Amino acid sequence: MKNILVPVGSSKNAISHLQYAVDFAEAFGAKLFVVQVYNVFTKAGTMINVDKIIERESLEFLQGLVKQVDTKNVDVFVRTLKGDLIDTLELACKAADVDLVLVEPRTNSIKDEVYLGKTSGKIIKQMDVPALIVPEGYKFSKPEHILMAIKSAIIRKENVLSPIKDVKDKFKANVDLLLVKTPHYNDGDFDVNDELNAIVSNTTETVNATTFQGVLEHFQSHKPDMLCVVRRKRGFFAKTWEKDTILKKDFHSSIPVLVLSGLK
């Protein structure tokens, strides 16, 4: 894991989140790209160059945040980017060969009932880059026990397991695999291949209506300090992701959640 991207909003948690990102990046010896995306719609004939003003203010804001954290020995690059949120972030990830995006739950929303705000939810739902959702105010600590929950172990994409492999190897963490048999179960879904089998220490099979319910049932017995799920159109957050905003009543986690790209 060499390059990590952190989209920054205006939340009161921004400094705490950035410090976690620095600490996480330091553990891997990775570069950290701190970015803020803005979009401006101006009327024809406008005399003031709004783009330049917002770009300057955004850059000053990001530089101010970075000054408030201990950057340690991490190479931190600050960028302001103009354009559509997802398209712009995906282009940035491709240009910088980003391995992981660190997301804070609520970049702008201040509503207590919200787990992932509109911006964070959109990033998790629509981007095809692995992401780590870090709870508000969460201080970095080495994960020792990861619970990976999936409803199908079929893997067709190359390198899709790289993020969890990197985390496991770097921190010498144990990975427990939770296979959830849902009503959409197909023959072969629980056939764990050699690549995945080499990562996990223990495997548990359960029957639940959804992967999410399987996690709720087995969370306390496993006591993980990191949760790993898979981004799929009909996956872990399928119903929850019908809207960009994710409410705490639908899903909430007090530990970091590693979201892998779809396995298939």
UniProtKB/TrEMBL annotation:
Transmembrane segments: none annotated. It comes from the Bacteria. Residues 1-135 form the UspA domain. It holds the Pfam family Usp. InterPro entries: Universal_stress_UspA, UspA. PANTHER family: STRESS RESPONSE PROTEIN NHAX, UNIVERSAL STRESS PROTEIN UP12. Belongs to the universal stress protein A family. This is Nucleotide-binding universal stress UspA family protein.
